[in-house]
Amino acid sequence: MKIIHQSDYKTNTWKGGITRELYINPESSSLNARDFDIRISSAIIDSTESVFSDFTGYQRYILPVKGSLTLFRNGKAYRLSPNAPFRFSGDEAIKSENSKGAIDFNVIFRAELPVSVKVTSDEHYESSTGRTLLFALEPVTVNGKPIECHDAVLLSGAFAVKGRVVVVSIP
């Protein structure tokens, strides 16, 4: 079990705010080169409107963890829930409106990979194939260890969590 503290996140500035990279695989890959299989991040959004970058060949999940976030796809508005990750294709033309200072959680992955994302509370997983990344939405415990809000945990195998987290299953 590896705890990834917010102070360990790789940060980058973009025109809408600051993005914090929690996980990327392979480790030698980069967002700019578009040579990753999966990238997990959380952004602090300073701008109240933005246009999403094209990630053709990838799928995306996003959810707000603080503030409000509304996506616009094909002229239709989707007000996102902090309890239900929103999935969409990386090649879709997406615009967003959000509250200033909103924080989101993003997963971008190659379309052919079986990645799943869900929000859950107080669960015990008997077994897990591959790896799992947990993102704490409040102070939680994972396998009895305290984890601060917005810190992450990377683990393999069985685990127990008390508190509200985003669970990303990584193949």
UniProtKB/TrEMBL annotation:
InterPro entries assigned to the protein according to its UniProt record, in alphabetical order = RmlC-like_jellyroll, RmlC_Cupin_sf, Uncharacterised_HutD/Ves
Source taxon at top rank: Bacteria
One Pfam entry for this protein is: HutD
| UniProt-listed Gene3D superfamilies | Jelly Rolls (2.60.120.10)
**PANTHER family associated with the record:** PROTEIN VES (PTHR37943:SF1)
What is the name of the protein in this document?
Answer: HutD family protein
Tell me which species this is from.
Prevotella brunnea
